[in-house]
Amino acid sequence: MNIKEGDMFKKSSDGMNFAVKKIVNNMAVLESQDRKRQILTEVNILKLKSFYLPLPPPYFQISFG
User: Fold this and answer.
1) Contacts for 14-22 with beta carbons within 8 Å, 24 or more apart?
2) Residue-level pLDDT at 60
C-alpha cells in the first residue's frame, strides 16, 4: 500500500476521518476534516489497518436535508 498526501483514513477508535497532510521520511501528519485535530504517526502504522482504516475515493460525503 502506497500512502501519499491527501489520502483519507478513518480512525478506528472514534470513527473520525483524517487526511494525510504531510509525509516526511517515515512520519505522517494526519488532519481531521474539521481541521481541529492533528495526529503525528508513522506511515507503517497506517499500513497496518488496525488503528486507521483507509477510505476509498471519492472522499467527499453527501448529506441530504
Assistant:
1) 17/55, 18/52, 19/59, 20/46
2) 55
- Total Cβ atoms within 10 A of residue 9: 22
* DSSP-assigned letter for residue 39: E
Task: Please report, for the chain, the start and end positions of each structural domain, with discontinuous segments joined by +.
Answer: 8-52
**Model pLDDT for residues 22-34, shown as the tens digit of each residue:** 999 999 999 998 9
Q: Please, are residues 9 and 55 in contact by the beta-carbon 8 Å criterion?
A: yes
Residues 11-23: tens digit of each pLDDT: 999 999 999 999 9
60 exposure class (CB count in 10 Å sphere: 0-12, 13-18, 19+): exposed
Do residues 3 and 23 lie in contact, with contact meaning Cβ atoms separated by under 8 Å?
yes
